[in-house]
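ZP: hey, is the nicotinamide-adenine-dinucleotide complex queued? I don't see it on the tracker
AM: it wasn't, my bad. submitting now with these inputs:
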Amino acid sequence: MKKVSLIVVGAGGRGSSYAQFAAENPDRLEIVGVAEPRDFYRNEMVRKYNIPEKNVFTCWKDLAERKKFADGVIIATQDKMHTEPAIRFANKGYHVMLEKPMAPTARECERIVKAVKKNNIIFAVCHVLRYTTYTSALKKVIDSGAIGDIVSMQHIEEVGWWHQAHSFVRGNWRNEKESSSMLLAKSCHDLDWISYIMGHKCKSISSFGSLKHFRKEEKPEGAGTRCLDCGCEPSCPYSAIRIYLTERLDKGKTGWPVDVLTPVVTRENILKALQDGPYGRCVYECDNDVVDNQVVSMLFEGGRTATFTMTAFAKGGRKTRIFGTRGELYGDSSNIEVFDFLTEKTEKIDTNASEGSILGGHGGGDGGLMESFVSALADNAPSGILSGPDATLESHLMVFAAEKSRIRGKVISL
Ligand SMILES: NC(=O)c1ccc[n+]([C@@H]2O[C@H](COP(=O)([O-])OP(=O)(O)OC[C@H]3O[C@@H](n4cnc5c(N)ncnc54)[C@H](O)[C@@H]3O)[C@@H](O)[C@H]2O)c1
């Protein structure tokens, strides 16, 4: 198998996780260049993968100025910084692995797809849920006809109370102007997954949603502006002290989300971040505006329907019920249960994937995606890519339509 070379644009949380594939499979992948403005993350990648100095940059634009020197690029910058690098690197002939969401508008997504097709490159969007052990087992059950033809689907994404507080109230995806809508930032994965499993085109869509809880009006009497200085902190489930210190660092957990607060995880650095940084703010006093609960209804070809719920107010995880003409399926990322209407028996399938490596993230989806992308580049054949340009554009258009429906209060046809 040919050894593949990649460059990384944005060596933050996601960029470094994907690059780990090279550390674990040095005979299959090498990281030969990086663009990252933050010294710590850039230096870490240079050190770990021994990247020559001439291939190290602080901005993707300088990297894109260089003559093409790798097979492909991982683009893992923030949501609003995907379009330009994706198009530039595609135009230079690099194969592209692009973080989701593709881009914050339908027009930008279409521009990216156009550039991908014009240059005939291999392209994968990081819809990691398509690549999990769980999804491939579930898809096999559906494709085997075990539950007949899918008639409807009920899917819920429990973002979880502390994850919502971390990413969507205090963190990078809290404000639509700065990043994107909640549905695009978090649940584009879910609408994409529903569309993948349904296997038919979505015809029309409607949605409701609101920012119900994380608002000034909900702030308890006597609460402070930072958790370190708040009389209500001991009884607040969203306390940053609880989320980052007592429930994680104090129990020896130093990875995500704790390492988002500071690259060098020490008690002192975390306390400093809670004192001065965004992650120590009261959840009722942030500049957040993305929704904390949303529902979406979808009509697919052939009269099939699906509903999706996103909520902050739950333990966390995704659960699905799929209703077919011959049976019913329940799945929750680690278990699948298939009930057969004919035999009235339930078959259970255990799909627990190892989370041991960084690439075990998202139920093995991070590793599964890298495996597919690297293999596709090695063989120069995109057949193993499950999240190519057309499928991804289609599910992103569903997200934009759902948001339009939520804002305008109308059913939107696709
Ligand atoms: N697929 C998934 O499941 C998943 C999960 C989390 C995040 N994401 C997406 O991944 C992307 C990155 O998220 P993250 O958590 O890694 O964020 P991050 O902030 O840790 O990483 C983004 C990096 O881009 C760098 N950057 C900024 N300007 C740059 C420039 N001009 N040139 C090169 N690099 C630049 C930043 O310094 C930062 O290190 C986002 O779009 C996010 O929505 C996807």
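AM: back. The pocket of nicotinamide-adenine-dinucleotide is lined by residues 9-15, 35-38, 41, 59-60, 76-79, 81, 99-100, 126, 128, 185, 362 (CB under 6 Å).
ZP: great, adding it to the tracker
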